[in-house]
Specification:
alpha/beta; GMP Synthetase, Chain A, domain 3; nine-stranded mixed beta sheet; five-stranded antiparallel beta sheet; 13 helices; disordered C terminus
Length: 523
């Protein structure tokens, strides 16, 4: 891709490359009867009764869906939006679209109708697959109902996956932007190949592994760790679609014989708080994987003491997934997410200008070289933002960090105001726009509120309209009507004014000083 001395040092993907073939094709030929996917809907039912897919059946179903989508009039390059909960159908549609050269758009079933409508309109999707009970204003887009999906799966399969090239688009994910509008991140077929440094740099994955992931498919963390990487390595992945009671996870780990478990630190913390791990046999679990938010040293120590297992952390972003991590055989330095994965070219650049990496120990902007095959193609229909995130050959995601003498990275937060809510990046501007539509709100600013050393929530600081007597519960209910659950504030604070700079810009970092940290409201 480039002859720069800082270029990606791992093997590059072949010119002709299809992500679905890469993940499923080899295992379907080599081990067609091996279990690729186990779908559990009842954690207490016999595991033998769970829905199971072999590699041969899974690849066949993916190529059937691909053929069906093309027969229904979709063309390579069209976008297919998925507005569904986690199910095997979601996985089949995601990889089926990619197998046909169609761009999959994984969306969250938690999104409100207006949020889903925006994604559909902004992406210009030609079709949307919608689960029962979820509404969307489809406009000119074709709607696939559950009955339609069943018909797609019955279609004669494509003889092979589409002959795409490595830079052809494969999927489009939306993430919060600083402007307040979610922005599409377009990933290439090669993105699956770009995950190869994680195999041993984070997972230590092999063909005998059974991986349980606690996240949702609209998140690149889940799509990658829960589906893409296990299948590319011939391993088995476990999908749980039942009620998300916290006590279900240790039962699933035991009953499925999971060797790897992936979740956000918050979930590990809740498991330790509410579950008696001594009642579960976790001997098959080698270690846990964690990403999405910082892993605190206290949580790491607590988990080790309770289970005797390690937690391996990774740092990443929607534009590239994870690229810094700890893994088996590495020293874990509490407070650091680890070192750049093998082959990655990571640097810390000066805050304001320059393309030469800073010396060890100096804090600057964390950057990844544009030659990395895991890096996005670009932002969807936002060429101006593409230009803003590159400095020479370096992509800058907005994180502040330093590298020590041993190559370990130390994270110092965001250079912008994007918040981290349960592992999801959330734009303050997006939440503020939703709350501003409440009739009792004159001004609003939101930020992360630290309620304990390693726990933070989204808090909204509101200046009421003159004469209004706003109620916290009413405002939280309003937020629930317009924002996905993970974007909703958990604390409402009424203030007389908002802190601003001389030119009128809100100083979000000063909001915490307006109140003493307290437990979040239950709203």
């Amino acid at each position: 891709m480039t002859d720069s001395p800082y270029a990606y040092r791992g093997a590059l993907p072949p010119a002709r490359f299809n992500m679905a073939r890469y993940c499923l094709g080899a295992a379907a030929k080599a081990t067609p009867e091996k279990t690729a996917l186990i779908v559990v809907t009842d954690a207490d039912a016999p595991i033998e009764a769970a829905e199971r897919w072999t590699y041969g059946a899974l690849d066949d179903a993916v190529r059937r869906v691909a053929a069906g989508l093309l027969a229904e009039g979709l063309r390579p390059g069209d976008r297919l939006m998925l507005r569904m909960p986690n199910t095997s159908d979601y996985a089949l549609l995601f990889f089926g679209a990619i197998a046909a050269g169609i761009v999959a758009l994984p969306a969250s079933s938690q999104l409100t109708e207006s949020e889903a409508d925006f994604l559909l309109a902004d992406s210009g999707a030609a079709a949307v697959a919608v689960a029962g009970g979820l509404e969307i204003d489809a406009g000119h887009a074709r709607v696939f109902t559950p009955d339609d999906v069943a018909r797609l799966k019955a279609h004669p399969p494509l003889p092979d996956h589409a002959e795409t090239v490595c830079d052809d688009p494969a999927f489009l994910v939306y993430t919060s932007g600083t402007s307040g509008r979610p922005k599409g991140v377009l990933h290439a077929q090669r993105s699956a190949w770009g995950r190869r440094p994680m195999y041993q740099g984070w997972y230590g994955i092999g063909v005998d592994d059974v991986i349980l992931h606690a996240g949702a498919f609209n998140w690149t963390y889940t799509l990658g760790v829960g589906l893409t990487d296990p299948w590319a390595n011939g391993a088995t992945t476990v999908l749980y679609t039942g009620e998300k009671n916290i006590e279900v996870w240790p039962r699933l780990l035991e009953r499925t014989g999971a060797t790897l478990f992936a979740a956000v630190p918050t979930l590990y913390r809740q498991i330790l708080k509410y579950c008696d791990l001594g009642n579960h046999d976790l001997t098959k679990l080698r270690h846990g994987l964690t990403a999405g938010e910082a892993l605190s040293p206290a949580l790491l120590d607590h988990w080790r003491a309770a289970t005797g297992k390690n937690l391996y952390e990774a740092l990443g972003m929607s534009e590239c997934s994870t690229y810094v991590s700890t893994g088996p055989g590495m020293e874990i330095r509490p407070g650091s997410p680890g070192r750049p994965q093998p082959g990655r070219s990571i640097a810390v650049l000066p805050l304001n200008d320059g393309t030469e990496p800073l010396p060890q120990g100096e804090t600057g902007l964390l950057a990844i070289h544009r030659s990395d095959p895991g890096l996005m193609l670009g932002y969807w229909n936002r060429p101006g933002e593409d230009a803003q995130v590159y400095r020479g050959d370096w992509f800058i995601g907005g994180d502040l960090a330093e590298l020590d003498a041993d190559g370990y990275l130390w994270y110092h937060g965001r250079a912008d105001d994007v918040m981290n809510a349960m592992g999801y990046r959330v734009s303050p501007a997006e939440v503020e726009a939703a709350l501003s539509s409440h009739p009792a709100v004159a001004e609003v600013a939101v930020t992360e509120l630290h309620v304990r050393e390693d726990v933070s929530v989204i808090a909204a600081f509101i200046v009421p309209r003159e004469g209004a007597r706003p109620d916290k519960t009413d405002i939280l209910d309003h937020a629930a009507q317009t924002l996905a659950a993970y974007k909703q504030p958990r604390e409402i604070v009424f203030v007389e004014s908002l802190p601003r700079t001389a030119n009128g810009k809100i100083v979000r970092r000063a909001l915490q000083k307006k109140i003493e940290p307290a437990a979040p409201s239950k709203g």
